[in-house]
Amino acid sequence: MTDVIDILERMGSDATLRDAPRQALERVLAAERIDEAVRAAMLSGDSAKLQSLMGAGAQFSVIMPSEEEEAPADGEDGEELPPDGDDSV
Length: 89
Hints:
Layout: H1 2-13, H2 15-18, H3 22-31, H4 36-44, H5 47-53
Helix pairs in contact: 4-5
């Protein structure tokens, strides 16, 4: 698995390898002795298949809203507002 990660790192950092024609990439993967199933997933760009072959579990994230400040129920200057329907000020 380390070889696969090394190849992926090289592909990410080397534009000539990342943008290489399929035949060139096939040669690189064959030279690195990458497993046939992993090689096929890499060449097809099937990241889900590659993750499952490498034993990666499901990936997810949780987004929690931050605590928001409560808006004051009173007027901006701190005065209490009259209840709705009450015209007296």
